Amino acid sequence: MKILGTAAALSGTTQFTSSTAVWVANTDATTHKTVTLRNVDDDANLGTLVVPASSGVVVHLEPGQGLRGDAALTGTQVDANSGR
Fold first, then answer.
1. How many CA atoms lie within 13 A of 68 on its CB side?
2. Burial of 16 (0-12, 13-18, 19+ CB in 10 A)
3. What is the pTM of this model?
4. Cβ neighbours for 5, distance < 8 A, ≥ 6 positions apart
5. Whose CA is closest to 38, among 21, 61, 8?
6. How much is the pLDDT for 10?
7. What is the per-residue pLDDT for 83?
8. DSSP secondary structure of 11-75
9. Quick check: 27 and 74 in contact, CB under 8 A?
10. Which residue has the higher pLDDT, 83 or 52?
């Protein structure tokens, strides 16, 4: 997996709107956390994905879409070919 950025918490505002692939890690050792995919206008949710405790997933995005989530979720921009 080619890392293209630094880790950032997904809490608060929509993140990674200029990324096409993001590694999302759940830093909570005991609780599953939900990551939310936001639309380009950042005014609606497009879907959700549960990230298991102490695990992670690669989420592929269309240009302009972004991610939100719990403070225990961190995201790092990765190469779009990662996780395929």
1. 14
2. buried
3. 0.91
4. 19, 76, 77
5. 61
6. 93
7. 60
8. SSS-B-TT-SEEEEEE--SS--EEEEEE-TTSSSEEEEEEEPTT-EEEEE--TT-EEEE-TTEEE
9. yes
10. 52
CB atoms within 10 A of CB 13: 10
Read off the pLDDT of residues 6-45 as tens digits, 9 standing for 90 and up: 999 998 789 999 999 999 999 999 999 999 999 999 999 9
| Average model confidence (pLDDT) across the chain | 93
Domain locations in the chain as residue ranges = 8-77
Please, what is the Cα angle at 63 between 59 and 65, to 5 degrees?
60
35 is written with which tokens? Answer: 């990551």
